[in-house]
Give the backbone structure.
Amino acid sequence: MNLDRAVLAFAGCVVLTSLLLGWLVSPYSLLLTAFAGVNMIQASFTGFCPAAIVFKKLGVGSGTAFS
């Protein structure tokens, strides 16, 4: 798995977890979904992604989107 796929998989897990929490626990959990969306939008413009930095430190191989 390369860095791009790891970041996308992590973002998908965050969104699905937030939706599940919003359904089962509290609608305020949907703020996590909003945060994930805003983070993905800013990463598309700036190229800065905190999850990519963490995955790099964990040894995940490079991809093409996050260098």
User: Anything to note?
Assistant: The chain has one domain: 3-56. Helices lie at 3-24, 30-46, 50-57. The chain has a mean pLDDT of 92. Residues 3-56 form one domain.
